[in-house]
Amino acid sequence: MHKGLNILKADRIYYRRGDSLKILVVDDEENNVNFLVRKLTKLGYEVFQARNGLDAIDLVDREKFDLILLDVMMP
Question: Is the CATH code 3.40.50.2300 the one for domain 22-70?
């Protein structure tokens, strides 16, 4: 594990069928964001998007997400 990172690991994640999980997609590539938003929305998830880290932090401060998909190689 990378020094300085604190990662919490849950043994299991439970949710009920029909729950609309909130997913945040963070990527600076518009095509990647559009693809993921389209596919995840079609699967019934409530999807939010951010194009940079600062926007992602702002969204995380306002919303509680079940999953965050993050591009780790953003400028």
Answer: yes
CB half-sphere exposure, 15, CA atoms < 13 A: 10
Strands (E) across the chain are located at 22-26, 46-50, 67-70
From first to last of its 75 residues, the chain has per-residue pLDDT tens of 445 555 556 666 666 665 789 999 999 999 999 999 999 999 999 999 999 999 999 999 999 999 999 998 887
Largest CA distance in the chain: 38
Residue 72: partners with Cβ closer than 8 Å, 6 or more residues away: none
pTM for this model (two decimals): 0.75
Q: Are 15 and 44 in contact (CB under 8 A)?
A: no
List phi, psi (to 5°) of 25: -105, 125
